[in-house]
Amino acid sequence: MRLPLIAGNWKMHGSLQSVVELSKALVGWNPESKAEMAVCPPSVFLSVVAKELQGSSVALGAQNVSEHQQGAYTGEVSGDMLAELGCRYAIVGHSERRALFAETDRQIAEKFIAAQRAGLTPILCVGETLEQREADATLDVIAEQLGVVIDVAGLEAVAKGVVAYEPVWAIGTGKTATPEQAQQVHAAIRLQLGEAGAKTRVLYGGSVKAANAAEIFAQPDIDGALVGGASLVAEEFLEVGRLAAQ
Q1: 147-167 pLDDT, tens per residue?
Q2: 214, exposed or middle or buried, with CB in 10 Å at 0-12, 13-18, 19+?
Q3: What are the pLDDT digits (tens) for 107-139?
C-alpha cells in the first residue's frame, strides 16, 4: 500500500507574513490521515516555515538542491544544509529548472544523488512539452529523462525516491492531462521501475486543484500530486489532501 503524497510547490511566491499565515493554516492536517502532506517554500523561508510546522504532521521540502556537497558555489544550497533545517524532501528536475536554468538530465541525476546522500527524499520531476506530446513522443521523453537518473543513481536508489509526472504544457496553464493520459504515463513509469518500484510513489502535477483531483487520484498508478498554484490557498490545498486520503 503506497501512502499518497500531496506536495505543495510554492515556487517564487509569498512574503514573510503570507508564508507564516499559510503554514499556520496547514498545521491542523490530521496526522492519522491516509495521505501525507508536504510543502516546499522558497529557500529563504524554509527556517520560518519549519518553525511554524514544528510538531505538526506536515513535512518540509525544498524546491531545489545543489549537486555539490560544499564549496565555492555562490547562491547554491546543499542537501546537508536543507536537512539541517528540517527538510524531508527536495524537488529535482522541475521543468522550470530544465527550461529556464538549462539543467541537464545528468545534472538532475547528480542532484538526486546529492539529496539522498543528505538523507532527503528527492521528488524527481519528468514531463514532456506540448510539441513532444503532439509528436507522439511523450513516453519516449519520459523514459529518457527517467532512464538517465536510473543509469547514474541506480534503479534501487531511484525506486526509493518519489517520481512526479508533470506535463510541461499543463503547468500553470489551467490545462491538465486527462486522467487517462496521466494514467498511461504513470503506468509506463512504473513499468520502467519494475519490481523495485512497486512501492515508489508516482505523483501527478500540472494545474491540480480540488475540482479535478478526485478523478486524477482514482487512477491506479497515481499516488498523489505535486501541486503548484492551488497549494498557495490553504483550503484548496487541504481539500486536495482530503481527496487523496479517501
Answers
A1: 999 999 999 999 999 999 999
A2: middle
A3: 999 999 999 999 999 999 999 999 999 999 999
Between the alpha carbon of residue 235 and those of residues 107, 187, 209, the distances in Å are 36, 30, 11
> pTM for the whole thing?
0.96
Interval 87-102 mean pLDDT: 97
Specify whether the CB–CB gap between 114 and 67 falls below 8 A: yes
pLDDT tens for residues 188-219?
Answer: 999 999 999 999 999 999 889 999 999 999 99
Q: Active-site residues: which are they? A: 94, 166
Per the structure block, which three cell numbers stand in for 170?
Answer: 499543463
